Amino acid sequence: MNENDTDKPVLQLRLVVEADDYEEAVRFYRDVLGLPEQAAFEGEGDARVTILEAGRATLELANPAQRRMIDEVEVGHPTSPRLRVAFEVRDGEARTERLVEAGATLVASPRETPWRSLNSRLDAPAGLQITLFEELLPLEERKELDGFGTDAGRGDA
């Protein structure tokens, strides 16, 4: 824990997903997508869990209009379930191809978004719809784009 962590009320976001085909889900997310294994535990009655690190975590809250707009930009039509998981990757096209080869179903191939990321959409193991995104500009440059930021929470409104 670093000294700044003591000021944070939440230290980690952990998304827990029940996977009917546990081995396939672990193989896909750990071995193919490349999320490092942090820990794994077994219990009575064949209870198993694997905790995978996914880099920095954020919670993205979107209203229905924003969800529809993202679907339109990424896919071309409404498709998102209420919950979708997004992973930032370095090479969106190659990573998308690798996940499809490993069994994910391509919903939409990589395409550039108005907010300057390269996004693809896949149906993946454990019943998750995922977005892979590759940032094409640094955050500071994206903040200057029309519609990127708001005045909410800046303290200067």
Automatic annotation (TrEMBL):
InterPro entries: Glyas_Bleomycin-R_OHBP_Dase, Glyoxalase_6, VOC_core. Residues 9-135 form the VOC domain. Transmembrane segments: none annotated. This is VOC family protein.
